[in-house]
Fold:
Amino acid sequence: MVAYPAIKASNAAIDESTMPQVAVFVGGTSGIGKLTIKALVATGHSTRIYLVGRKSSEGRTKAFIEEQRSVNPKAEIVWIEGEVSLLADTKRICDLIKSKETCIDLLFLTAGYAQFWKLELTSEGHGIVQTLEYYSRMLFVEQLLPQLKRANAGRVISVAGGGLETTRIDLEDLDLKKNFSSFKGQPLYLTQNSLYMEQLADDNPDVSFIHTWPGFVDTGNLWRSVDRNSWMGWVLWLTLQPLISLLTYTDDEAGQRYLFQSTSAAFGGQGVDWHSKPGRNSYDRQANGLYLVNHRCDCTPNAKTMATLRKEARGKNWAHTQSVLGPYL
Ligand SMILES: NC(=O)c1ccc[n+]([C@@H]2O[C@H](COP(=O)([O-])OP(=O)(O)OC[C@H]3O[C@@H](n4cnc5c(N)ncnc54)[C@H](OP(=O)(O)O)[C@@H]3O)[C@@H](O)[C@H]2O)c1
Structure:
C-alpha cells in the first residue's frame, strides 16, 4: 500500500513541469473522474482539461466547471458534449479535440458501470457497457495516440479492474452475444482492457499506460443498472453496499490517489520523482509498459494470468477489437 502521506507529498511536489498541460477526461462528469479533476485543479497549476459528457449531464457539469474556475483561474475546463456509447460520436469527439491540440499529456477514462441484467445493445449493435468500458475507451486511445506520443510524458489511465484479469473468458464469444450472463461482463471487459492496452504499450513505449482497479469508491456506480427495489437490488444492498460503505476512501483521498497515478513517475514514464518502491509492469518488470494498479496504488502485475492470456488470448482479442473499431480508425 502506498501510504496516504506519501501520496500527498508527491502531489504537493507537482509543479508546472509535471502538471498535465492538456488532459482529456471521458467519464469526468461523475465519480472518480470528477474527483480527479477536482484534485488536479486544486493544485493551483495551469492546465487545460477537455471534459467529455452527454447532454443530460451538461447543466450540472457546467455548474461544476464554474466552481472549479473560482478554485483555480489557471485551470481551463472545456466542455465537450458527446455520446461516448456510440463509436461514430467518439470519433467525432476525437476529431474535434485533435483539431485543437497537438499534444495530450493525460487521457483519463472512467465511463461505465456494472451491468447485471440483459445485454443491452447500442444503435450500432454493440453492448452498451462493453462500449463504454472497452471499445470506446480503446478508440479514444487509438485516435489520440499521435497527440499522446507528441507530449513529453503522455499517459493513459483506464479505470476498471487492472490486476483482476482472468483466463476464464470465451474467446469465441468476445462480445457476449452468444451467451450473456450477469457476471460475465465485468471480468471480460476488464481483461480486454489489459490485453489491448498491453499490446499498445508494447508498440508505444514512449506513452505510459495504467489500468487501475478502484476497489470500492462510493460513487453510486453500483446503482446505475439495478433498481433498488428489485430482488437484485436487495441482494446488492445487503451484500455489496455495506462493503462499499465500509471500505470506500473519502472523496478527497480517492481524488488524491488518482492524481498520484496521473502524475507520479512510480508508473514508468516521466512525472513527479518517486524514490520509494518502483512500480512493475504487466510483465512483472521494472520498465515502461502497462501498469496494473489497485486501489492502494500498488502494482499488481497478475503475471501468471497475463502470461497465459498473452499466449492464448491477446492476438484474438486484438483482431476482434480491430474488426469493431476498424470503421472508426
Ligand atoms: N466506484 C467503484 O467502486 C468501482 C469499482 C470497480 C470498478 N469501477 C468502474 O470504474 C469506472 C469508474 O467508476 P465510477 O465510480 O467513477 O463511475 P460513475 O461515477 O458511475 O461514473 C461513470 C461515468 O460514466 C458515465 N456513464 C454512465 N453511463 C453512461 C452512458 N450510458 N452513456 C454515457 N456515459 C455514461 C457517467 O456519465 P453521467 O455523469 O452523465 O451519468 C460518468 O461520467 C466504471 O467503469 C466503474 O464500473 C468502479
About this structure: The longest helix spans residues 128-150. The CA atoms of residues 145 and 291 lie 17 Å apart. The chain has eleven helices and seven strands.
